Amino acid sequence: MIKLHGASISNYVNKVKLGILEKGLEYEQIRIAPSQEEDFLKISPMGKIPVLEMDGKFIFESGAILEFLDTIFPQTPKLIPEDPWEAARVREISTIIETYLDIPARRIYLPAAKISPEIVEEVHSTLVKGIKALQRVVRFSPYIAGNVFTLADCSGFAHLSVLDEELRPFYPNNHPLDLFNGWKEYFVFMKTKAGPALVEKDKQILKKILARAKTKIG
């Protein structure tokens, strides 16, 4: 059986989880946090999540995991289209979301982030540029890259849902995602699907648990 190591609060864990669910694969989630412990570094050299375990072997990095699953389970729905041009577009969308939106946003929404008004404004400009680029390549018909669920949806739903929620306190009146035509409708549509709905539910449950724990500690 597939084992997915990682917590449902992580957008990269959820990216992989979305792919597993779309493929209809049987799996077990091992809920662990990132770690720099030597035993964990043996299976994830950067100490990050997610990690996929199968047949006693391990794969780290979300993109590598999903491409592996696409290869080893060819009878399940493909996350990477067979057409080379469509495959490239799917990877383009995923890369824009992760490189030009998620990474810059982490400068302000992660708990350990050092935030100043200047950084908030700088990140806003970067995100707006990324959103404009993303708008040029998405399709929303109804999925983010066309008429079938792909790797781009794994990235899109997992990352953009986090950014929409976590960045609201910083940009209550000028959230970059509000400039992204089709995003709100897409988010609503995706939550009508069993996989994305489960991922969102698990994420929100864990967020509430962590918030309560933080309140008790504080």
TrEMBL record:
Residues 1-77 form the GST N-terminal domain. Pfam families: GST_N_3. Keywords: Transferase. It comes from the Bacteria. Residues 83-217 form the GST C-terminal domain. SUPFAM superfamilies: GST C-terminal domain-like, Thioredoxin-like. This is Glutathione S-transferase family protein.
